[in-house]
Specification:
With 138 residues, the chain is α+β, with helices and mostly antiparallel strands. The protein has a domain of 86 residues. It is 38% helix and 42% strand. The protein contains one helix and eight strands, in the order E-E-H-E-E-E-E-E-E. It is rod-shaped, with a radius of gyration of 29 Å.
């Protein structure tokens, strides 16, 4: 702080340039330490959200198959899922979902009209880590 003395009163003019630069450089240094941690936390949360979405898709496809009495097919390929419904030997495309943090081995999951899948487990690579999802546990 820069003070000017004179005529019995002290006058405060403000901060010097060196003081301002010191405070700004300390703030920038602290932000550079904290910034990557918050970005990493955000990415982990986004990846976890994708994993929960995948589990929800697997569970809800079984429910839909049971409720509608129709067969459904999930085609897992690299980082996407293609959802199809089988009616009278014709596959109808329901939708496609792409993932950023999840990859799959190419495989097909068939749900019968009772909501049961033809396989028990699927292998998923989640953030470069292999996970085995049991479809019965969903």
């Amino acid at each position: 702080m820069h003070l000017i003395k004179g005529s019995g009163r002290e006058r405060i003019l403000g901060f010097t340039m060196v003081e301002l630069l010191t405070v700004l450089s300390l703030m920038i240094f602290l932000m550079s330490l904290i910034g990557p941690l918050s970005v990493s936390t955000f990415e982990k949360a986004k990846a976890k959200k994708e994993l929960l979405l995948l589990k929800d898709i697997l569970k809800e496809t079984g429910k839909m198959s049971y409720l509608t009495g129709k067969k459904y097919q999930l085609l897992l390929n690299k980082s996407s899922i293609h959802i199809k419904r089988l009616e009278s030997q014709i596959l109808t495309d329901i939708g496609k979902i792409d993932f950023e943090n999840i990859t799959f081995e190419s495989q097909v999951i068939l749900y019968d009209k009772y909501g049961h899948s033809d396989i028990a487990n699927i292998n998923v690579f989640f953030r470069h880590e292999e996970l085995k999802l049991r479809l019965q546990d969903l």
